[in-house]
Write a structure and sequence with these properties.
single chain; alpha+beta; five-stranded mixed β-sheet
Length: about 210
Amino acid sequence: MKTKQVFLAVLLCVVLPAMNVVSQTAKTVPVQLSVALSSGNVTLTARGDNYSSGMGAVVGTLRNNTSVELNINVSITEGLYLRNTGAGQNMVATGVFLKGGRFSRIGANRFIKVSAGANVEIEIEAFCADMDRANPASTESFSTEAIPSAIVAISSSISRYIADNFELDLTLPVQIAVWRTQGHSQAEISAKLSFTGADWEIATTIINY
Protein backbone atom coordinates (compact mmCIF):
# COMPACT_ATOMS: atom_id res chain seq x y z
CA MET A 1 0.00 0.00 0.00
CA LYS A 2 1.34 3.43 -0.92
CA THR A 3 1.91 5.80 2.00
CA LYS A 4 2.56 9.48 2.72
CA GLN A 5 6.11 10.56 3.59
CA VAL A 6 6.74 13.91 5.26
CA PHE A 7 9.79 16.17 5.05
CA LEU A 8 9.62 18.70 7.90
CA ALA A 9 10.79 22.25 7.23
CA VAL A 10 13.04 23.31 10.12
CA LEU A 11 15.79 25.79 10.80
CA LEU A 12 18.52 23.19 11.24
CA CYS A 13 19.00 19.75 9.69
CA VAL A 14 18.34 17.08 12.29
CA VAL A 15 17.69 13.37 12.21
CA LEU A 16 14.58 11.87 13.75
CA PRO A 17 13.81 8.16 13.99
CA ALA A 18 12.08 6.76 10.89
CA MET A 19 11.69 10.18 9.30
CA ASN A 20 13.70 12.17 6.77
CA VAL A 21 14.01 15.82 7.77
CA VAL A 22 15.45 18.55 5.56
CA SER A 23 16.05 22.28 5.95
CA GLN A 24 13.87 24.38 3.68
CA THR A 25 12.04 27.70 3.59
CA ALA A 26 8.67 28.29 1.99
CA LYS A 27 8.86 30.93 -0.73
CA THR A 28 5.12 31.24 -1.27
CA VAL A 29 1.98 30.59 0.74
CA PRO A 30 0.60 27.12 -0.17
CA VAL A 31 -2.27 27.32 -2.66
CA GLN A 32 -4.98 24.89 -3.68
CA LEU A 33 -4.26 22.78 -6.75
CA SER A 34 -7.58 23.83 -8.27
CA VAL A 35 -6.65 27.52 -7.93
CA ALA A 36 -3.21 26.96 -9.44
CA LEU A 37 -4.79 25.08 -12.35
CA SER A 38 -7.52 27.64 -13.03
CA SER A 39 -5.00 30.50 -12.99
CA GLY A 40 -2.74 28.70 -15.43
CA ASN A 41 0.14 28.73 -12.97
CA VAL A 42 0.44 24.94 -13.21
CA THR A 43 -0.44 22.29 -15.77
CA LEU A 44 -1.52 18.81 -14.71
CA THR A 45 -0.91 15.71 -16.79
CA ALA A 46 -2.57 12.68 -15.19
CA ARG A 47 -3.15 9.03 -16.01
CA GLY A 48 -4.41 5.89 -14.31
CA ASP A 49 -2.20 3.39 -12.50
CA ASN A 50 -4.52 0.37 -12.52
CA TYR A 51 -5.84 1.14 -9.00
CA SER A 52 -9.40 2.10 -8.11
CA SER A 53 -8.87 4.00 -4.88
CA GLY A 54 -6.40 5.71 -2.57
CA MET A 55 -2.85 6.99 -2.74
CA GLY A 56 -1.36 6.79 -6.22
CA ALA A 57 -4.59 5.68 -7.92
CA VAL A 58 -3.74 8.48 -10.35
CA VAL A 59 -0.18 9.45 -11.28
CA GLY A 60 1.37 12.02 -13.56
CA THR A 61 3.29 15.27 -13.66
CA LEU A 62 2.73 18.81 -12.48
CA ARG A 63 4.42 21.65 -14.36
CA ASN A 64 5.10 25.05 -12.83
CA ASN A 65 4.42 27.60 -15.59
CA THR A 66 5.72 30.55 -13.56
CA SER A 67 9.13 32.05 -12.81
CA VAL A 68 8.79 31.50 -9.05
CA GLU A 69 8.67 28.43 -6.83
CA LEU A 70 5.13 27.33 -5.98
CA ASN A 71 3.89 25.47 -2.93
CA ILE A 72 0.76 23.41 -3.59
CA ASN A 73 -1.44 22.25 -0.72
CA VAL A 74 -1.42 18.48 -0.27
CA SER A 75 -5.10 18.44 0.70
CA ILE A 76 -7.48 19.25 -2.14
CA THR A 77 -10.33 21.19 -0.53
CA GLU A 78 -13.77 20.29 -1.92
CA GLY A 79 -12.16 17.61 -4.10
CA LEU A 80 -11.17 17.73 -7.77
CA TYR A 81 -13.05 15.76 -10.43
CA LEU A 82 -10.91 13.82 -12.89
CA ARG A 83 -12.72 12.86 -16.08
CA ASN A 84 -11.33 9.69 -17.66
CA THR A 85 -10.77 10.18 -21.39
CA GLY A 86 -11.08 6.40 -21.85
CA ALA A 87 -13.60 3.81 -20.70
CA GLY A 88 -12.34 3.46 -17.12
CA GLN A 89 -13.53 5.07 -13.91
CA ASN A 90 -13.78 8.80 -13.38
CA MET A 91 -12.13 9.82 -10.11
CA VAL A 92 -12.51 12.28 -7.24
CA ALA A 93 -9.09 13.57 -6.16
CA THR A 94 -8.52 14.49 -2.51
CA GLY A 95 -4.75 14.92 -2.27
CA VAL A 96 -1.61 15.54 -4.34
CA PHE A 97 1.87 14.31 -3.39
CA LEU A 98 5.29 14.02 -4.93
CA LYS A 99 6.28 10.59 -6.24
CA GLY A 100 6.60 8.16 -3.35
CA GLY A 101 3.96 10.01 -1.32
CA ARG A 102 6.45 12.72 -0.31
CA PHE A 103 5.47 16.19 0.90
CA SER A 104 6.82 19.03 3.03
CA ARG A 105 5.46 20.56 6.21
CA ILE A 106 5.86 23.93 7.91
CA GLY A 107 3.72 24.18 11.02
CA ALA A 108 0.20 23.14 10.08
CA ASN A 109 0.84 23.58 6.34
CA ARG A 110 1.39 20.43 4.25
CA PHE A 111 2.45 21.03 0.67
CA ILE A 112 4.56 19.99 -2.28
CA LYS A 113 7.22 22.28 -3.71
CA VAL A 114 7.44 22.86 -7.46
CA SER A 115 10.44 24.88 -8.62
CA ALA A 116 10.06 27.65 -11.21
CA GLY A 117 9.54 26.21 -14.67
CA ALA A 118 9.96 22.65 -13.40
CA ASN A 119 8.05 19.43 -13.95
CA VAL A 120 7.62 17.11 -10.96
CA GLU A 121 6.27 13.57 -10.83
CA ILE A 122 3.22 13.28 -8.61
CA GLU A 123 0.85 10.77 -7.08
CA ILE A 124 -2.77 11.75 -6.57
CA GLU A 125 -4.95 10.34 -3.81
CA ALA A 126 -8.23 9.66 -5.59
CA PHE A 127 -11.39 7.57 -5.37
CA CYS A 128 -13.61 5.84 -7.88
CA ALA A 129 -16.76 7.70 -8.91
CA ASP A 130 -18.09 4.89 -11.13
CA MET A 131 -18.52 1.48 -9.50
CA ASP A 132 -19.57 -0.18 -12.76
CA ARG A 133 -16.42 0.78 -14.67
CA ALA A 134 -12.96 -0.80 -14.72
CA ASN A 135 -9.98 0.61 -12.81
CA PRO A 136 -8.24 3.42 -14.71
CA ALA A 137 -5.54 1.83 -16.87
CA SER A 138 -2.07 3.29 -17.23
CA THR A 139 -2.96 4.04 -20.86
CA GLU A 140 -5.94 6.21 -19.83
CA SER A 141 -5.52 9.91 -19.13
CA PHE A 142 -7.64 12.41 -17.19
CA SER A 143 -8.88 15.95 -17.63
CA THR A 144 -10.17 18.13 -14.79
CA GLU A 145 -13.67 19.54 -14.63
CA ALA A 146 -16.35 20.67 -12.20
CA ILE A 147 -17.52 18.03 -9.76
CA PRO A 148 -20.96 16.63 -10.76
CA SER A 149 -23.71 18.02 -8.56
CA ALA A 150 -24.63 14.54 -7.31
CA ILE A 151 -21.30 14.16 -5.50
CA VAL A 152 -20.42 17.78 -4.61
CA ALA A 153 -21.50 17.39 -0.97
CA ILE A 154 -19.74 14.07 -0.36
CA SER A 155 -16.57 15.32 -2.09
CA SER A 156 -16.47 18.24 0.33
CA SER A 157 -17.11 16.02 3.36
CA ILE A 158 -14.42 13.56 2.28
CA SER A 159 -11.82 16.26 1.70
CA ARG A 160 -12.45 17.82 5.11
CA TYR A 161 -12.46 14.47 6.91
CA ILE A 162 -9.20 13.34 5.31
CA ALA A 163 -7.53 16.67 6.11
CA ASP A 164 -8.65 16.42 9.75
CA ASN A 165 -7.51 12.80 10.04
CA PHE A 166 -4.44 13.04 7.84
CA GLU A 167 -2.39 10.27 9.45
CA LEU A 168 -5.06 7.60 9.05
CA ASP A 169 -5.48 5.22 6.12
CA LEU A 170 -9.06 5.98 5.09
CA THR A 171 -9.04 4.32 1.67
CA LEU A 172 -11.85 1.84 2.35
CA PRO A 173 -14.19 4.12 4.35
CA VAL A 174 -13.85 6.92 1.81
CA GLN A 175 -14.56 4.67 -1.16
CA ILE A 176 -17.54 3.20 0.68
CA ALA A 177 -18.83 6.73 1.39
CA VAL A 178 -18.66 7.71 -2.28
CA TRP A 179 -20.53 4.65 -3.47
CA ARG A 180 -23.13 4.81 -0.68
CA THR A 181 -23.87 8.41 -1.64
CA GLN A 182 -24.38 7.25 -5.22
CA GLY A 183 -27.10 4.87 -4.01
CA HIS A 184 -25.22 1.57 -3.91
CA SER A 185 -26.21 -0.93 -1.23
CA GLN A 186 -23.95 -2.60 1.32
CA ALA A 187 -24.32 -5.86 -0.61
CA GLU A 188 -23.29 -4.22 -3.88
CA ILE A 189 -20.29 -2.56 -2.28
CA SER A 190 -19.19 -5.72 -0.48
CA ALA A 191 -19.13 -7.50 -3.84
CA LYS A 192 -16.47 -4.99 -4.93
CA LEU A 193 -14.57 -4.36 -1.69
CA SER A 194 -13.58 -6.41 1.34
CA PHE A 195 -14.24 -4.23 4.38
CA THR A 196 -15.10 -4.39 8.08
CA GLY A 197 -18.02 -3.10 10.08
CA ALA A 198 -15.69 -0.41 11.43
CA ASP A 199 -15.00 0.77 7.85
CA TRP A 200 -18.74 1.03 7.25
CA GLU A 201 -19.25 3.06 10.42
CA ILE A 202 -16.41 5.45 9.54
CA ALA A 203 -18.01 5.87 6.12
CA THR A 204 -21.23 6.88 7.90
CA THR A 205 -19.27 9.47 9.88
CA ILE A 206 -17.71 10.82 6.69
CA ILE A 207 -21.09 11.11 4.97
CA ASN A 208 -22.43 13.17 7.88
CA TYR A 209 -19.22 15.19 8.43
